[in-house]
Specification:
The protein has 6 helices and 12 strands. By secondary structure, it is an alpha+beta fold. The radius of gyration is 51 Å and the shape is elongated.
Amino acid sequence: MLNSRLRNCFHIDALCKLGLFLKRSALAVGLIVWATQAQAEYRVNVGDVLEVAVAGVPELQHRASVQIDGTICLPLVGTLPVVGVPLPQLQTQIGAAMASKVFRQRTSGGEKVIVIGADEVTVTVAEYRPIYANGDVSKPGEYPYRPAATVRQLVAVAGGYDIMRIKMSNPYLEAADLRSDSGTLWTEFAKQQARIWRIKNELGDRSQIDPVAMKDVPIAFSAISAIVNSETEYLKTKQSDYQREKAFLQRGIREGDDQVNVLSAQQKTEEAGYQSDLEELQKVNDLFSKGSLVSPRVTDARRAVLLSATRKLQTAAELMDLKKKQDLLRRQLEKLDDQRRLDLLRELQDASVSFNEIRGKLQSVGEKLQYTAMVRSQLVAGAGNKPQIIIIRKGEKGQERIVADEDAELQPGDTVEVTLQYQDGPEKPLQKLSSSSIP
């Protein structure tokens, strides 16, 4: 009785093992059939690398990339169009093209002539065109295709999902850096504001630079006071230097005018002396012609006229030179005001441009701070849902967008877009620049 039960158990165990073996065999056969069908249905496209081999002729084994024009180039055949052709049909075409071709194979015994048969040619895909990962993955980019690859496997190769894809390795550190940038920009904002007020004051606007007017700037009041005091001292220094330069030119003009008056009086005296000497010469010449004077007296009179004429010309030249210098000083005095105003207007323009640039940067930093705050709140709350996966595949009718899941199988050339969806957190209002802080 016991032996009978044992035999029944053995039979049952054997039947179970046999059933498991048959199931595994059927599964293996099914996978082989599926792989064969997938290979047979696959159509060649640009980017694939085909391997063509001839049985018994290793020299003719050749790999060829499908070019952008959809062709490949093979020995003994030349250029063939291959895009969109299934692999079995392509093998038949290449076999027919190479059929009856003569290949001379060199061996140790000499040269051997081989006639290629169509059924001796095999065509396989050595490398499929790559697939692409894009979106919320750690390493988006191009990856080689592997048969039966799934979205889950591609995401794993791309480093997994990554909610910090937008150049934000750590929202807490990023927020700290942004707050530091914000403080620096607000300080520059206050400096440019005080600078604009100082320039306008130099241009004639008598408004006072008051630290209280910048109460809306979110930096320490002591820092604001230091900025305002610095601009105030700079304003005093520039105005003092301007006044000294202006006083120097005005003093030079006054002194020059005095010299002009002196030289003008001297010129009149020189002119009177010249006329007197000239009349004396005329009298001496008259007396000399009558024999009343000797020639040395005439010579002395001529020398006196020549000397008077020389002094007259020298005084005239000095007067002209002095007047020219006076004109230059007056032009410098006029130019001092004009050039100062032009420089101040140019400086005001540059300061206004810098002020607006800083305002734009502050707005950008404020938006980034808002975004990092939202990301931090999502990280703390664990607000992640299943990813949204879109496969972009080129079909017969053009590009197709296929909604898929992580277990979807990929095809060569697919682009997988991954989007992680989050719960919407409460939005915080951006910090605005008040109108009172704008000069």
